[in-house]
Each structure stands twice: as C-alpha cells, then as structure tokens.
Amino acid sequence: MAKIVAPSLLSANFGNLAADVEMVNKSDAEWLHLDIMDGVFVPNISFGIPVVKAVRKLTDKFLDTHLMIVEPDKYIDRFADCGVDMLNLHYEACTHLHRAIQHIHSRDMKAGVTLNPSSPVSLLEDIVCDVDMVLLMAVNPGFGGQPFIENTYNKVTQLKELLLRKNSNALIEVDGGVNHTNAPKLFEAGADVLVAGQYVFGSKNPHEAIRKLLQ
Ligand code: DX5
Ligand code: ZN
User: Fold this and answer.
1) Which fold has domain 4-214?
2) 34 CA from centroid of ligand 2 (Å)
3) CB 54 within 8 A of CB 17
4) Global model pTM greater than 0.90
C-alpha cells in the first residue's frame, strides 16, 4: 500500500500561489491535487488551464488533477498540454468513460475515475482494470472545508475488495474532509492517497499537518 498525501490547492492563498506551492515542494507531500470546477457539474467555479500551466512551472511534484466539469473528455488534450501527471474524471460526468480513459493513456498521463458520495462502488466493476486510480469523494464535490462523510470507510473497504477480486492495481484516493482523525482509519481501510485542503492550508504549520496525516 502506498501512503501519499496530496494537498489540495483549492484551499491555498490565491494571492500568492507560488509561496504555497513552494511550501508543498519542501514538504513530505508527494503529490499536489488540482481541483477544476466549471460551475455546471458542481455549484462552484475554481481555476482553469492558465493556472494549471503556471503551477506546472513551479513544481516537479506529481500533479493529480480532479476534473469536476461536464464533458471532461473534451478537455483531455488541453490538460495533457499543461503537463499534468494524472487526470481524474467523474463517473457521473462521463458517458464514454472507457474511451476517455484510453485517450488519457494515449497522452501519457495516468487515468483515474472518481465517484460521488451517492454513487456505489459496484458501478466500477467493468472499469477498475483500466484505471490507475479510483478517487472516492468523502464530501459532495464543489467546496473545501466540508465535513467528512462517515460512509466513506465502507466504500474504501468495498473498493479494496473489488480491486483484489478483479486483480486491479489501481490506487485508492479519498478526497474531502480528511484530517488527522480519519487519516489513519482511511489508510488502515486500504486508501493509498489522501487529499487534504483545509487541514493543510488552514493549519498554522502545514508541514506538521502533512506529517500528521502520514503518521
Ligand atoms: C472538493 C474538492 C476537494 C477539496 C478538499 O470538491 O474535490 O479536493 O479541495 O478540501 P478539504 O480537504 O478542505 O475538504
Ligand atoms: Zn478534489
């Protein structure tokens, strides 16, 4: 099992992103999580391609990109051109998911599929062998700082069973409401990657917050 923390830039200081990216560069976090929201798939708008390109120039960390947009398949090439390492598409937003996953791989990126809290793990039966990661939302997507939905533990356990049964090497990532209380339980249940926004960037000592999540 991998044990990776991916701070979510959504909770960073947009007046001085370079400073917060530099904090992540110097931290124990191996990944940086980028939340792209279009105001249609989710009721919020975050940032887009120019910001992602700027962030790419500021870091060598693995850029884990979470697309909360409708018709995400239309933007695969644009994000590939930004140099991100992984694209996560929502199951709920993508009609031709298998084709989109192949497209992502053809552009030399890792591919992830994301599930909303209300979408059951069983939906992934026929796609888990094609993806590099499954991202389980532990909040309804759209905002940072929301409370963790407790049913996520069950979903991690169910997903772990599904991956074993299907012989899939996909990583398990959990996103939303992650903190030092639920992190050990999530890793214990089988999560490999934890996204944390408010817990890291809202902390007085973000380096320490990241270390605490990894403990
Ligand atoms: C929510 C985003 C998350 C968010 C997590 O839609 O996908 O990545 O930034 O923020 P916290 O950790 O504050 O819940
Ligand atoms: Zn996210």
Assistant:
1) TIM Barrel (3.20.20)
2) 7
3) yes
4) yes
